[in-house]
Amino acid sequence: QVQLVESGGGLVQAGGSLRLSCAASGRTYTIDTMGWFRQAPGKEREFVSSISWSGARTYGADSAKGRFTISRDNAKNTVYLQMDSLKAEDTAVYFCAASLTWVHGNPNRYDYWGQGTQVTVSS
Length: 123
What we know:
globular; 11 strands
């Protein structure tokens, strides 16, 4: 089993920045991919970005490119999502997920999920 705990969400003005963290514990050696998703009220869960457990490979949705950066700290078993130039439409609950294989945006391919952290961007 793998446990994921997100943190770093909050309220920020449009144009501002936030850094989300996802700490993994348990059988982390089984993880191949870590991903970030988001879900706004009334909408489906949306892929944001993913990174291989080694950190060598990253992949991002078009909505994230140029504004969001995914990274990881091997020593802390933690993945980060740096979000810059935030817009009102980025408001959502952000979820961290882990997959036992290398995957991109299909949420059904992820095996473990965190509880989510709320990001609210005021315009």
